Amino acid sequence: MKILHTSDWHLGAVLYGHDRTEEQQSMLDQMVEIAKETQPDLFLISGDVYHTTDPKTAVQKMFNATIAALCKACPNMTIVVTAGNHDSGPKHEIFKTPWEALNVHMIGKFDKDHLESHIIEIPHKGFVIALPFTNDRFLPEDIYQQLIDLTNQKNTENLPIVFSAHTAISGGDFTGHEDVKDQRVGGVDLIDVSNIGNGYDYLALGHIHKPQFVHTGKHNARYCGAPLAVSFDEAYPHSVTLVDIPAHNATLTNDNYTVVEIGNPRPLLTLPNPNDTKEFGQWEEVLAQYEALPDDTKAYIRLNIIDPESMPSNAFDQAVAQAKDKDYIFCFINAKRKTAERSNGPQQMTVEEFQATDPWDVVKMFATDTNDASFDEKDLKPLFNEVLEALKTKEED
Fold it and tell me: What is the CATH number of domain 2-261?
């Protein structure tokens, strides 16, 4: 069975208020062209079709037109689309019945009473276990293995089994994700890959934006990654993954995978130049690189500045003015202090530093700044984590 595995399209996402329809449409067009050229048996989207649970009508039309184009380009191809944590599960399934007439399966909600609805058979080719994003507390114990066992009962022809899940696996490379905590990434709890069980041939993962294999000892689990960068920190190639599975229980190697890079007509560019050895620079040197950009550079621009106190008061206005009448678009200044050394007074942080700091570290900074002699990390940290988890649960509900 040949699979085109993609995820995390985040259609409708904007970048610092800038519309990205042009790039997103280009990405979708490339998807259709890749499918047309390779003619896979399965086109699989492992969650986060949209960036919000309430995408604009124009964004939904863009997605629907792409699915229709895929059906036309590959008439014999099965399409399976699962909802991610950015999607609305119920809305995902509104047109479930008419889509199925085109061999398109939209799986938005976990149905514990009808587990077979999560198993999609591709006649004489294989099976797909399609599990949409669901908070772990709503999943029955051993549900992954239950679904695999149920699929194996149906698999009388010994065909490949693909398990699609939108989740965060421990030990991965989470570069580009802002919300990375000890046990959560992007608002999703981390799980060990062993929790998903045994008996699948390929674990098609979504949620983490950097393409990578997950260590299972079998070379059979992969994040295909986002096909389009969502943030400046996703400074790596973006792609889709083609997987060729010869048979059930076959051993997969690198030869079974083909990574197809997706081009971006307006990439995200951070200065200092990515080829430099340093990620941040002084205002004057970064400004010089910025001013040296050719006027026809089609890119979004972020300036990484060290020692923000040395920037002029009108630095932002200068950066905005520099982009006037140019093809590139200025987004923001990412300021970072030169050292982490503490002064005698309270510690100050930029907004970006505050957002990237673990909440418990903020608590410790406050205790230090206020000289709180009663602060006991051993006793207070478990209580703090309990309150933080309760707040997250309330927010999700």
Answer: 3.60.21.10
Find tokens 């649970």 and name the residue. 53
**How far apart, in whole angstroms, are the C-alpha atoms of residue 392 and residue 397?**
9
Instruction: Tell me the mean pLDDT in the region 142-155.
Output: 97
Length of the chain: 397
Cβ-proximal residues to 182 (8 Å cutoff; 6+ apart), any chain: 358
Give me the sheet containing 188-191, strands edge to edge.
168-169, 188-191, 184-185
Cross-sheet strand order for the sheet of 2-6? 104-107, 78-82, 42-46, 2-6, 239-244, 257-261
Q: What is the DSSP string of 140-200?
A: PTTHHHHHHHHHHHH-TT---EEEEEE-EETT---TT-S-B-SSEETTEEEE-GGGG-S--
Are the beta carbons of 130 and 118 closer than 8 angstroms?
yes
**Do the beta carbons of residue 191 and residue 167 sit within 8 Å?**
yes
CA–CA gap between residue 206 and residue 252 (Å, rounded): 20
Question: Which of 36-45, 268-277, 365-374 bottoms out in mean pLDDT, i.e. has the lowest?
Answer: 365-374
Please state the pTM of the whole predicted model.
0.85
| Residue-range domain boundaries for the chain | 2-261, 268-396
